[in-house]
Amino acid sequence: LSTLGKAKAYIQLQKSIQRNGFHVIIDHRYRLNKATELFWQKVIYRQQNVLHYIHSARLYNYIFTSKIWNKLLFKHQLFVCVAKGIEEKVRTVFPALHTQTIYNYVQVDEPTVLMDMPQKYIVALGRMDHSNVKQIDVLLACYAASTLPLHHIHLLILGDGIRLKQMQQLAIDLGISNTVSFKGFVKNPCPYLKQALFTTLTSKYEGLPTVLIESLLLGTPVVSFNCATGPNEIVEDGQNGLLVADQNTDQFTQALNQMIDDVEQYQYMKNNCQSTVSKFQKAFIKAQWQQLLSGTRSHKIRK
């Protein structure tokens, strides 16, 4: 859209908000620039309470670097963070902003039909895009350095993206293509998670990695980097999985080996999986949102 076209669309949105009588707006947008955000706050949201939602540890997608601009635009508004680690980062960098953590609730359906898998395997989920946030290349290298291929424990990777062929070639180069399977995009990963020995995560950063919660709800332990943010709020090291120092590939490889070498500890962690993620259940999260929205509607709007 042209600048004029965008302005017209914004005005139409503002009229729609007024016409429908919305009292509270939950805003998931990335911040484009200061001028555009000023228009949103002073024109489009002129009569509404706004809750800003932060999904990722990359704060500057949601908040400006300028404390003066943040104070001007967001002084009386609340930032809802999907992880306590995100909230701590916001409070450290921008202590004047109002914040609260409410986790995303996670719900899984137990697979009624399980796959006929001929071999034991571990699993990873992630889009292989330009930004390489999920670092499937790092996972492949750690897996290749571990003893898992020698034990014929396969690695299943669910996801697609522009780097898919590059990752397939890397598996060949590392000599592990016979035990690595790229399944592409899978609409329902639950059967794969349910039957895996464990789930892995090697991301550069996260918000709140849902796949770890889904895996634990299905009774499958996890191995994850302690990246920013989220994993250390989900993974209880030695209780429901192994939490590895952020980006420590040697330690990650050791953790992969430990999961198959220490059978007693593995079974202990597997037995604990579901009980450790009750705080992400729907009823608990719903009650937090109801309390927040009830209080927000009663507050006087100050722009």
Structure at a glance:
With 303 residues, the protein is of the alpha/beta class.
Q: Would you kindly provide a written description of the structure presented here, covering whatever features stand out?
A:
- With 303 residues, the chain is an alpha/beta fold.
- The protein has helices at residues 3-20, 34-44, 67-74, 84-93, 136-145, 164-173, 190-195, 210-217, 231-234, 249-261, 263-272, 282-298; strands at residues 24-27, 49-54, 78-81, 98-101, 121-125, 154-158, 180-184, 199-201, 222-225, 241-244.
- It has twelve helices and ten strands.
- It has a six-stranded parallel beta sheet, sandwiched between helices. A four-stranded parallel beta sheet has the order 1-2-3-4.
- Helix 5 (136-145) packs across helix 10.
- The radius of gyration is 22 Å and the shape is elongated.
Helix content: 40-55%
The helix-strand sequence is HEHEHEHEEHEHEHEHEHEHHH
Number of strands: 10
Low-confidence stretches: none
**Which geometry do the CA atoms define?**
elongated
Strand order of the largest sheet: 7-6-5-8-9-10
Largest sheet: 6 strands, parallel
- The helix count comes to 12
Distance from N terminus to C terminus (CA atoms, Å) equals 28 Å
The mean pLDDT is: 93
How much strand content do the residues show? 5-15%
Coarse structural class: alpha/beta
Radius of gyration: 22 Å
